[in-house]
Write a structure and sequence with these properties.
Blueprint: E1 3-6, E2 9-12, E3 17-23, E4 33-38, E5 45-50, E6 56-58, E7 66-71, E8 76-81, E9 90-96, E10 99-100, E11 104-109
Parallel strand pairs: 2-11
Antiparallel strand pairs: 1-3, 3-8, 4-5, 4-9, 5-6, 7-8, 9-10, 9-11
Length: about 110
Amino acid sequence: VQLQASGGGLVQAGGSLRLSCASSLITFSFDGMGWYRQAPGKQRELVATISSSGKTNYVDSVRGRFTISRDNAKNTVYLQMNSLKPEDTAVYYCSERQYWGQGTQVTVSS
């Protein structure tokens, strides 16, 4: 099983990034997907989720700035991140069922 996350990088505050997570699971279109993040010295936290039907949910700190979406034809989930803040700096992970991607680093400079 592979969850391949990509799209991280270094961006200035106020900028945007789009994360992608490609899944190898054949159950992808039936699975809820999640994006998590872990900042240095902090616990991993849930950022956003999307159900198999497309229902989304966000942690309060990113609501209105981040958008989670999915493309079942590509077995891929996305996280569009706008108006980035230095406190968004973290390693971002995608998750499906009990599986985790390898993480992609997002660094927001002030």
